Amino acid sequence: MDDRIHKQRIADSLEEPTREANRLARKLGLDPFPVNYWIVDYDEMNELIAYGGFQRRYPHWRWGMQYDRQRKQRQFLGGKAFEIVNNDDPSNAFLQESNDLADQKAVITHVEAHADFFRNNEWFRMFGTDPEAAAMLERHAETVAEYMADPEIDREEIEEWIDHVLCLEDNIDQHRPFSTSGEWEEDSPTGEDIDEQLEELDLSSEVKREVFDDEWLEQISEDEDGPTFPESPERDLLAFLTTHGKAYDGDSGKAVEYEEWQRETLELLRKEAYYFAPQKMTKVMNEGWAAYWESKMMADENFATEDEFVSYADHMAQVLGSPGLNPYKLGFELWQYVENRRNRRAVIEHLLRVEGVTWRNFNDTVDLDAVLEELEPDPVVDDPVGHLEELDPEDPRIDREILSGVRDGELDHETVETYPWKLLTYQGLAERHYSLVKREHRGFLGSVSQNELERTARYLFETDRYGSIEAAVADVDRTAGWDRMFEVRESHNDVTFLDAFLTDEFVEDNDYFTYEYTHTTDDFRVTSTDAADVKKKLMLQFTNFGKPTIAVEDGNFRNRNELLLIHQYNGVELDFREAKQTLERVFELWGRPVALKTIRKEFDEHDIEVARRRDREPEPTEQGTLIRFDGESFEREDLPDESVADIAATDLDYDTKPDEWL
């Protein structure tokens, strides 16, 4: 009872911040899902993190392992859980009761931005417009729990089956809208193994020997011109297995039809993989988006009070300052770049329409410091409370309804003094927080290149001219940067986001570089600061969730009903130890031998030594390879170049831009 009362008191104290954070978010142009906020303790937070943000998941040992890892990470490494929120309508966010008020406010503003991203990014709509995720996952949990409680089914078999499927959970086609396996259509029929066809004919052994002698059977088995399917490589391996797979029966040594629990478990795990895919595909965008708007609300709009600001600044420093590839920091900086670049373009477009200003004489005729002074926000939006009597209800930057309420006495002055943003509209807030005049971005306008000036002038279709720079600047739309951010938020994922905005300018300004293992020094070294190399490296980490791209090439490989998988090689070779472990899992879900076609890199020791003396990297030889597992042992064979031409890396593959994204 005491614990519930304590949590209720915390919830009551956060009622106003949650309400006002949502209102501010909507003023800023966000359109979030409704959010339910829950107060949880330390252990409950660890459990939720282990469960991926939900209160109930199917029974399996992985959750306990993840819970233990999370608990130890926080206990021994000093990690702090600020929030967890799920993609659902309404969204559910969990606040840890031990966090102070500044942290809770930061979490709330962060969550409102996440809920906006969930609702408006098209990649989340690939799963469906009404996710009802919590209800779906609870149904899945009940289904698996019922199977585990069935005395006819061995619980260990179910857990092992789940292990097999989870090993392949990222092998779906995340660029295709979700459909159940029943709706998933296969282009061509399956091929059947000759032995299985003969079994179905129920022929006597004498007839089999007379009509189908061993020589004929062997010849047929080795005929590689039998029916193949699918017609083109299929990336949704889980759907393919659900439709065409069989379970391997160790007792009989044969493939048998899936039992009901096996097929249903495979299908529900596939559905969950599709549900979580958009979050993996948009990690940089989503976290950067939430960090950007959290900062806008907490710092720029003073949602954190003076006595809370130091704590909030420490909170943000922890989020943005964590080592390694930090999606919060990268995303935050990229969103700022999107905003600044669009705002700069809008200003340049107007200045190039001033009489006498061209892209050639731009730097000689335009005083950019004076332009920045003109772009400073109007005092009435910079400090609306201090200019309350001057506010014009007809001004599109002013919220007429709120202003009327204040002047009529229906809304007290203390409220707008605490939340001055209430007096402003989206247009007013965009001017109030115009990025180019902020101290940290004041050099961005002046860094415009001659190439950008020429390109902007070439595509400038406006014919009206301005008589002065002041007139041109006064006509600049201050919402341009935010409007562009909302457009990008709707349609991009991490790969397309990085491809579009990871420019030379961004890489140079933010000091990004690549590093990798070098054979000449036997350690990791910085290898490039070139934007193209940084982009390639980052996109390799985000394409297909940073995992190898595997597809089904043939479900009747060599006319033996074997499964042939292909690795879409992009210059990074597989870890062969992990590849073999994965094939062992796939075998259990296919029930028959499985093979994987890939490319490996080979380095000649003599070439390495010569390269070391010349202080350069050796050139590897790329060799096509087939790995086959028959349930007992592995075989490996080299393939001729023509056999792997379809999976070999090209310039396009190295950039990891699939054709459909171009």
UniProtKB/TrEMBL annotation:
Report residue spans for region: Disordered: 611-650
- Highest taxon of the source? Archaea
Residue limits of the SpoVR protein-like N-terminal domain? 12-343, 480-545
Entry coiled-coil feature ranges: none
Q: Where is the SpoVR-like C-terminal domain?
A: 548-600
Q: What Pfam families does the record tag this protein with? A: SpoVR (PF04293), SpoVR_C (PF24755)
State the protein's name: SpoVR family protein
Q: What organism is recorded for this protein? A: Natronomonas aquatica
